[in-house]
Structures are given as structure tokens and as C-alpha cells.
């Protein structure tokens, strides 16, 4: 089911949470609402769910104006970051809860719950209490419970935020496979750029209540609309007045071209399969360059070496807002938030 968000605004007192936001979410797509904390993404999700009411604008779900519909009439499934499990009920009863309050038949409930427990690989834990599950298992239970009532839209609010990095990675891989199997329109909120880039079909970048850019992960990473999007979606360094990805910079030791920038290596750090080379230009600007191990070994450089820098042709760049500063005061590295 498609979702249309048209000119939605929301204030909390003097704070503008959403400022004239319009987004179209196609049916069957997995869409990420990505942005910093307090940017408005969770507020937008709650307005889609009917848990918050917009001050202005319209929300349509599958062509039906849902702006003033109660949450229970929108046929959406909602998964919170902290599971909201019924602690005294078994995993099976938690998953069955939505069907039971809708007074479905016992046989129908049993069959549906069995299907969902198998889908999320929890059938062997059906009789356990939520406290007896791991964090990842509880989140899968919460997803099964949300899917039990066959929602037309599945909404996930920072679903993996309370989990450690390894479990988050496993669950986002699983969520992508699950979505491909059940084909329900899914919207999830995250501030984790890697999570959005890896899982989503489309990303909506929201900052200070406004949509900065909408597009596929490749479109946003390779063609950022502005400095904020570029800084937010991955590591960024600055060469002259240009913001550029550290892996889109080249280090040269041979004869320079006229546009190459002279620099000197100040530090070399291995980070897993990558080598980070910190250099300082002749103008005093600190720049970070990321190389593969083989690229680094081929250069044969170390701290103190004189080198030349250039931006790889056709790489995404953005003119920095602080480009008027002297190079010595320009920020050396903006890491992804």
C-alpha cells in the first residue's frame, strides 16, 4: 500500500518538529527515514501511524485520507525500539495477542502464529517468556506480533537501536530478507547511516524538520544534494574548499600535474582492511585519505614523506560552507554521525 505525505507540519510548543514535509512512499517498498536525533523522523512515523496528529497537511494510505483516522483503523503494524512485550505472556501469546482481541477463531490464530514463528525462526521458543529470549529474539518476536494482523503498512521506530553492533547487523540482514518475502510496505526510522544504506530501497534524509533529499542509497551517497547530506552519509574530509570522501582522494609520489596539491604525510593508521593516511598540505590544511592495503604498499610511503594530492575524477564533491576560512582552520575530518 502506498503512502502519501503532503505538506505535513507539526509543532510542540515553540519547537518545529516538521516543517511542510511531503514524501511519497511506493507500495511494497522498504523506506528509511534517516537523520540526526531530534530531526523529526520519529514524529513523522508516529503521524503515519496515527499516534500523533499533524497540525497541518494530509496523510493518505493506499489512496484513503487517513489524516484523522484512529490508529486502529489504519491497518498499520508498529514496532518500537524497546519491544513493548507483554512480560507475563509466552512468545506464542504475544504474537497471538492482536488476533485474539480481533476475536479470530482459535484454529485461525494457531495456524497464523505457527506460520509467523517459523518465519522469524522462533518456533522452538514459542512457550518461553520474553525475559528468556535474547534481545535479537525479542525484536523478532515484536516483528512477528506486528505482522500477525496482516497490516498494509509496517512501521519500525529505531527497531535495532537497543542492540549491540553484531546483533544489529544480523537483524538488518534478516529484515531485508523478511521484507522481500512478505512484501509489505515498510517504513523504518534510523540514525544509523550504514543501516539505511544497506537495507533500504529508498532513503528520506530529514534534518531540523525538513526533507533534505530523497533517493536510493546509491543516489544519495554518490550525488548528495547538499553539504548536510554528504556529511551525514559517510566519512568526509576537505581539500581546499571541496568536501570529498577520503577514499575518493589519490596520493601521488611521481611528477605532479598542475592541479595536484603538495602535502606531507603526518600519520599512517591501519583500520582493518583499510589504511588511513593523514596528511597536511603545504597551506596547512589537514586531510584524511583512505587507501586499500595494496594501494598503500604500492606507494611505499611513511610518516614524513612528501606527496601530492588530487581528487579522483567524477567523484562526488560539495563546496564547504566554511570554505571562506583559511586552510589552517578548516576541519580536518567530519566523521559520519
Lay out the secondary structure.
Blueprint: E1 3-12, E2 15-25, E3 30-34, H1 41-49, E4 56-61, E5 64-65, E6 76-79, H2 91-101, H3 106-119, H4 135-148, E7 153-157, H5 165-182, E8 185-190, H6 193-199, E9 202-207, E10 210-215, H7 217-222, H8 227-232, E11 236-239, E12 242-244, E13 249-252, E14 261-271, E15 274-281, E16 286-292, H9 293-299, E17 306-311, E18 317-319, E19 333-334
Parallel strand pairs: 3-8, 3-9, 6-7, 7-8
Antiparallel strand pairs: 1-2, 1-4, 4-5, 9-10, 11-12, 11-19, 12-18, 13-17, 14-15, 14-17, 15-16
Helix pairs in contact: 2-3, 2-4, 3-4
Features:
alpha+beta; 19 strands; six-stranded mixed β-sheet; disordered C terminus; five-stranded antiparallel β-sheet; elongated; about 325 residues
Could you describe the 3D structure shown?
This protein starts with a strand and ends with a strand. The longest helix has 18 residues. Helix 2 crosses helix 3. The C terminus is likely disordered. It is 27% helix and 32% strand. The strands form four sheets. It has a six-stranded mixed beta sheet, sandwiched between helices. A five-stranded antiparallel beta sheet has the order 13-17-14-15-16. The protein is an alpha+beta fold and 337 residues long.
Amino acid at each position: 500500500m502506498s503512502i502519501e505525505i503532503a505538506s505535513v507540519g507539526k509543532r510542540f510548543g515553540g519547537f518545529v518538529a516538521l516543517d511542510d514535509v511531503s514524501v511519497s512512499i511506493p507500495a511494497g517498498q522498504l523506506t528509511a527515514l534517516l537523520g540526526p536525533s531530534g530531526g523529526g523522523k520519529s514524529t513523522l512515523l508516529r503521524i503515519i501511524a496515527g499516534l500523533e496528529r499533524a497540525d497541518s497537511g494530509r496523510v493518505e494510505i493506499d489512496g484513503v485520507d487517513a489524516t484523522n483516522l484512529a490508529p486502529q483503523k489504519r491497518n498499520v503494524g508498529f514496532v518500537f525500539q524497546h519491544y513493548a512485550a507483554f512480560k507475563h505472556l509466552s512468545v506464542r501469546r504475544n504474537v497471538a495477542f492482536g488476533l485474539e482481541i480481533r476475536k479470530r477463531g482459535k484454529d485461525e490464530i494457531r495456524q497464523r502464529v505457527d506460520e509467523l514463528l517459523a518465519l522469524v525462526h522462533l518456533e522452538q521458543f514459542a512457550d518461553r517468556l520474553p525475559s528468556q529470549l535474547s534481545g535479537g529474539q525479542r525484536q523478532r518476536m515484536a516483528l512477528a506480533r506486528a505482522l500477525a494482523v496482516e497490516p498494509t503498512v509496517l512501521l519500525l521506530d529505531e527497531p535495532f537501536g537497543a542492540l549491540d553492533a553484531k546483533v544489529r547487523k544480523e537483524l538488518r540482514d534478516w529484515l531485508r530478507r523478511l521484507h522481500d518475502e512478505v512484501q509489505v510496505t515498510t517504513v523504518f526510522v534510523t540514525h544509523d547511516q550504514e543501516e539505511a544504506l544497506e537495507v533500504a530501497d529508498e532513503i528520506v534524509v530529514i534534518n531540523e524538520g525538513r526533507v533534505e533529499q530523497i533517493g536510493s542509497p546509491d543516489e544519495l551517497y554518490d550525488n548528495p544534494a547538499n553539504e548536510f547530506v554528504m556529511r551525514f552519509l559517510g566519512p568526509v574530509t576537505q581539500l581546499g574548499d571541496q568536501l570529498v570522501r577520503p577514499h575518493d582522494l589519490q596520493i601521488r609520489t611521481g611528477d605532479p600535474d598542475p592541479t595536484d596539491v603538495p602535502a606531507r604525510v603526518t600519520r599512517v593508521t591501519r583500520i582493518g582492511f583499510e589504511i588511513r593516511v593523514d596528511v597536511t598540505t603545504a597551506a596547512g590544511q589537514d586531510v584524511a585519505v583512505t587507501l586499500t592495503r595494496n594501494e598503500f604498499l604500492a606507494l611505499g610511503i611513511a610518516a614524513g614523506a612528501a606527496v601530492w594530492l588530487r581528487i579522483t575524477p567524477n567523484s562526488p564533491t560539495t563546496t564547504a560552507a566554511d570554505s571562506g576560512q583559511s586552510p589552517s582552520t578548516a576541519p580536518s575530518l567530519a566523521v559520519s554521525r
